[in-house]
Amino acid sequence: MNPIINRFENIKSLINNSNVKIVAVSKTFSYDVIRPLVDHGHLHFGENKVQEAVSKWTEAKKNNPHINLHMIGRLQSNKAKDAVRLFDYIHSLDSQKLAANLAKQEDNINKKLKYFIQVNIDNEKQKSGIGINLLDDFYYYCTRELKINIIGLMVIPPNDGRENIYFKKLMELNKLLALKELSMGMSSDFKVALNYETSFVRIGSSIFGKRD
What is the distance between the alpha carbons of residues 39 and 77, in angstroms, rounded to a whole number? Predict the structure, then answer.
């Protein structure tokens, strides 16, 4: 069996919960490397650069219309048009300007995406995301004024060994907003995230191996 399929199936067995979706983070890997997992029937793939995703996935998605493509990296407003055309999920919604641009592009081509609001859980200056104190206002701006489909919250926690605290906090914030999905957990910490009701885990190197 292909080693990528082996690793994928191993992670699936560790998760052992059909409600948790694995977003296979395929950034930097060519489609030839990813193809075995597509042929295996996996449907959720993550990219963090729009231009790379356009060149890699445009044809592949035409041939496999059930594939769901997830934007997991920081998204610039000027890339909103291409992002809306190609992606199905955006995990990194982090500003009013970006939200307004995405809503406009959705209207232009009559397509609705699913969005996670990225939360800056510990107010890290170098990290993007909405601060907890601004989350309510931003959520209502997106859902009431822009009418975009917010399905949950997303976090990239600080790398300080306190993932439990951050994941628990995000789970609580998600419940306060009555949202159904949660995007948290990567190769290094997805097992912790499983304890806090995550529904999407974003796993790259544990499936595809180390990047160059």
Answer: 33
Asked if residue 114 lies in contact with residue 148, where contact means CB atoms within 8 angstroms, the answer is no
Dist. CA 144–CA 69, nearest whole Å: 26
The DSSP secondary-structure symbol of 145 reads I
- Over the chain (212 residues), what is each successive 10-residue block's mean pLDDT? 94 94 96 96 97 96 96 96 98 97 98 97 84 97 98 95 96 98 96 97 94 73
- Please report how many Cα atoms fall inside a 13 Å half-sphere around the Cα of residue 9, on the Cβ side: 9
Q: Which amino acid is at 70?
A: H
CB count within 10 Å of CB 127 equals 16
Helix (H, G, I), strand (E, B) or coil at 122: coil
Query: What CATH number does the domain located at 3-208 have?
Result: 3.20.20.10
